[in-house]
Predict the 3D structure of the following.
Amino acid sequence: MPGIGPMELVIVLVIALLVLGPKRLPEAGRSLGRGMRNFKSSLTGDDAEVKPEALDRA
């Protein structure tokens, strides 16, 4: 399966700009990044919640 080159990325970004517009594009990027970060942390088991053991030591 071939990789994604720079020209394909430019095409995707132009289409996203046309669909979302310049005002909503940064918010969509932040939302996508947040979702990917949450997904990755749920897969690895790293969560930002405070564990009860950590509360006992504080």
In short: The CA atoms of residues 30 and 36 lie 10 Å apart. The mean pLDDT is 83. The chain has three helices and no strands.
